[in-house]
Amino acid sequence: MPQLRKIIHIDADSFYASVETRDNPELVGRPLAVGGRADRRGVIATANYEARRFGVHSAMAASRALTLCPQLLIIPPRFEVYRAVSAQFHGIFRDYTHLIEPLSLDEAFLDVTDCDQFQGSATLIAADIRRRVQAELRLTVSAGIAPNKFLAKVASDWQKPDGIFTIAPEQVPGFVLALPVSKINGVGRVTAEKLRRMGVQTCGDLQLLSLETLVQRFGKYGQRLHDVARGIDQRQVQTSRLRKSISVERTYAQDIDLMPAMIVQVDELLLELATRFGKIADRYFPTKRVIKIKYSDFTQTTLEEAIGDSGEPWNDPAVFHRLVATAWPRGAKPVRLLGAGLRLQPRRAGELDQMSLFEDDPLEAQAGP
Ligand code: DCP
Ligand code: MG
């Protein structure tokens, strides 16, 4: 029997938007989104709950959001502020535990198994964290409390926004029975549809499939499905994580449809990639070069190629140019986004990178010219 842990998952409510309303109170009550400009093909990073009522959501084109909600106010992101707020969240978390795993700027797992405040009640600890975030930062975060990471994350979403929800160990078997499989991290539209065709909609249904069947249909992920269907998740809260890749990408205001223009853009991406990689080059070496292309119709393709030992530098522009020239004809349509990246290996076994999540903010990469 594995030791039961006490895990809290914290997730700020409509994070970027809440920070903006906090700092600009006249925006309270208005439908608001943070994102790029509609006339520059911007994308919505997040919307407040007023805007969500109109169907506006993250990753939606800003132009589409304005169609759904014409009075929507879209403001540009202020990443430095969100990063500073995130650091303040972590300052509060550290008063309860040092076992903190950040998932993004506004989301983290906390392992409070060994925290003895509030007689060790994880629910009371989470309530206290929520109280302090409200009092000190004037923001709301939702909290989920459970014996493992999988369930804690489900729980934080359960009463969102401004919610708190606990799944006690003895409630786990009952709770998972009716839990839709779409709530499982990693089950996207495709897997959910595949499961639905197998007659599976809830974790209860999923429990009826044997491990053999699941592994046969889903490969390695089958074991994971078998576990989480029963509310089992042994993953530890990881205070630091290994970086596997690094990349930069840009969405363009105007589609690019000529190879010379793409080459110019790739060179710009390489300069930025070199700066970013430079900060971690003492700990990681690149094993592959990667090019990502998103076409005007939003289909995308990636091409990666191992870096040989012929001695040319990883950022040899000629090689990246060739990758783009090889990948582009697959879609042969105008290009709205280009990305360049590297797959990485740690130089020493066990090398960890504390800051990876913060350097890798995908949104930052989205702020196009
Ligand atoms: N974000 C983004 N693009 C996405 C998803 C998120 O830029 N596709 C950014 C903006 C969000 C922040 O990350 O404010 C946190 O993401 P969440 O998924 O936690 O969304 P929110 O905090 O905005 O809303 P919720 O209340 O649902 O947690
Ligand atoms: Mg959030």
What does this 3D model show about the protein?
- The protein is α+β, with helices and mostly antiparallel strands and 369 residues long.
- The protein has three domains: 1-168, Alpha-Beta Plaits; 185-228, 5' to 3' exonuclease, C-terminal subdomain (DNA polymerase, domain 1, Orthogonal Bundle), CATH 1.10.150; 243-351, DNA polymerase, Y-family, little finger domain (Dna Ligase, domain 1, 2-Layer Sandwich), CATH 3.30.1490.
- Helix content is 37%, strand content 21%.
- It has helices spanning 15-23, 49-52, 62-68, 79-93, 122-137, 149-158, 172-177, 189-197, 203-207, 211-218, 221-228, 259-278, 317-327, 356-359, 362-366, and strands at residues 7-12, 32-35, 44-47, 73-75, 100-104, 107-111, 141-146, 164-166, 245-256, 284-295, 300-306, 335-346.
- It has a five-stranded mixed beta sheet.
- A hairpin with a 2-residue loop joins strand 5 and strand 6 (107-111).
- The longest helix is centred in the C-terminal third of the chain and has 20 residues, at 259-278.
- The chain is globular and about 65 Å long.
- Bound molecules: 2'-deoxycytidine-5'-triphosphate and magnesium ion.
